[in-house]
Structures are given as structure tokens and as C-alpha cells.
Amino acid sequence: MNKNEVYQFLDQKQIWHEITEHPAVYNMEQLEQVTLPYPGCDAKNLFVRDDKRRNYYLITVKGDKRVNLKDFRRKQGTKPLTFASPEELGEILGLIPGAVTPLGLLNDTACRVQFYIDRDFWQAPGLIGVHPNDNTATVWLKADDLVALLRGHGNAVQAVDLD
């Protein structure tokens, strides 16, 4: 799905969302230069894989957080983790580096990727800002709606405490 297809999909599913169009951003530092309607609700996304390339994970935290992959591995019981390659990102999620988003899981037809979302997104106002498979916009969703959407698609989803 491209950006417009994501918007159409959300409309068809009657999922509340709000769109903020902006110049392309490739990292959190560039996003800080953009005026956002819900500061503190933007997401940082890490697409990682285990050392055998058998298991893939998308880890989503609030933009101001850091993720320690060793701690994540220990708490979630995974094999050693490393960032997936740009080729794997394109093949599995249909995305490019800098546009990683949970909505990319809608392109994961085999539902290979396990999604981990930080529980902090349920703090008031309960929103999450993610790219709509394109880094020239941020789409704001209710965290509950995003999780329900991805579970309905068939991906494994876990809300966890991520430091």
C-alpha cells in the first residue's frame, strides 16, 4: 500500500485518523523540525531480525525513547538481534529506510513480522503518529485502533513496557 491507499484503507475501515503532511523526514532529528499537532505521540520504529534471519520484529516506541536491543532480547526471549537490511525492509514491508512504520505491516502478506508496541502510547491522549508508508506525512491514530487493525491483518502484536 502506498500513502493514498493507506488513507483509503483507513477510511474504508472507518478508523479515526488525522493527517499531517510535511517534508520528507528520515530520522527523529529531522522530525523535530516539523510542527506536529500531538507532540510526544510520534513514534520511532525499529525493524530488526534475529541472527538466523528467521524472525523479524518491528519495535515501536515514543520518539524520545531509546531501545536497548540486548535488553529487549532478554525480556522477550529472542535470539540475538540486528537491524534488518534495506533489502529485507523493501521485500517484507515494501518500505524504504526512513519510512519504517507499523502500517507497513499491511504489506506483510505472509505476516512474518511480530509487532511490539510500547505501552506508553496508551497514556493520554492515547494517540500514535506514524508514517502512512511514506515519510512525507504522519498519520495520527488511536493506539487501540492501530493494534486492532494489525491484529486483524494477522500479525502478532504485543503491547510491552519498553524502557
Task: Tell me about this structure.
The chain has 163 residues and is α/β, with parallel strands linked by helices. Helices cover 25% and strands 26% of the residues. It has five helices and eight strands; from the N terminus they run αβαββαβαβββαβ. The strands form two sheets. It has a five-stranded mixed beta sheet with strand order 4-2-3-5-8. Strands 1-7-6 form a three-stranded antiparallel beta sheet. A hairpin with a 6-residue loop joins β6 and β7 (137-142).
SSE layout and pairing:
Blueprint: H1 3-12, E1 18-21, H2 28-31, E2 43-50, E3 56-62, H3 69-76, E4 81-83, H4 86-93, E5 113-118, E6 127-130, E7 137-142, H5 143-153, E8 157-160
Parallel strand pairs: 3-5, 5-8
Antiparallel strand pairs: 1-7, 2-3, 2-4, 6-7
Task: Kindly summarize this structure in a few lines.
The protein has 163 residues and is α/β, with parallel strands linked by helices.
Question: Keywords for this structure?
Answer:
three-stranded antiparallel beta sheet, 163 residues, alpha/beta
- Which residue ranges are poorly predicted, with pLDDT under 50 across at least 5 consecutive positions? none
What's the tally of helices? Answer: 5
The total strand number stands at 8
Our Rg estimate from Cα atoms comes to 15 Å
Shape, principal axes of CA atoms = globular
Major beta sheet, strand line-up: 4-2-3-5-8
Approximate strand percentage: 25-35%
- Estimated helix fraction: 25-40%
* Global mean pLDDT: 93
Task: Assign the structural class, choosing from mainly alpha, mainly beta, alpha/beta, alpha+beta, or little secondary structure.
Answer: alpha/beta
State the assembly state of the protein chains: single chain
Main sheet summary: 5 strands, mixed
Spell out the helices and strands N to C. HEHEEHEHEEEHE
End-to-end separation: 31 Å
